[in-house]
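Fold this complex.
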Amino acid sequence: MPKLQVELVPSSQWGSNMRDILTRSQWDKVRKHFYELNNNECQVCDQTGFDQNRSHAVEAHEQWEYDDEKLIQKLVGIEVLCPECHRCKHLGRALKTGAGRKALSHLISVNGFSEAEAQAYVQSTFAIHALRSMFAWEMDLDWMLTEDFPLDKTLMEGRIEAHRKKRAAKIIRGGGVG
Ligand SMILES: [Zn+2]
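Structure:
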C-alpha cells in the first residue's frame, strides 16, 4: 500500500460526513483535539500547510473503511493531514477544480511513484470508486461513541440517530442519499 492513499468517497455517500452530523463548534472541537494530538503536523508526510505557503497548518480527514459485501461504510478515525496530502485524498475534486496536476505531483513525491505508477494507481482508485458509487451504503458511526472521540457519548448518540433519520427520509423521498 502506498504511504499516501487516494480515498474517494462513493458519490452516493457525498454530504454524509462528520461536518453534516456535528454542529460547527463540535466539529471544531474534534478537529482541534486531533491537531494537537499530532503536534499540528501531517501524519503522512510530516509537513504543515506553512511549508506549502498556506495560511493554516493542517486539516482533518475522515477515515472510512468499506465492507464491499455488506455495503457498510465504517468510520474508523480522523487523520491529520497537510493541505497537499488532503487534496490527494479527494483527487476527484482536485481534478475538477483544476488542481489535479499539483495533487498528482505531491502523490508522486510522497509515494516515490514514477509517473506511470501514479497513473496506474489513480486509475485503480477511480475504478473502485465507480463501483462503490453504484450503491447506497449503510453508515457505521460507532467510532464516535468510543473513548477516542473527544465529545460526550450520550450527546453523540443523539446526533447519530438524528443523522440516520435524516438519511432515511431522504431515501424515502426518492432523492437518493447523495
Ligand atoms: Zn502531508
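Residues 42, 44-45, 47, 81-82, 84-85 surround zinc ion (CB under 6 Å).
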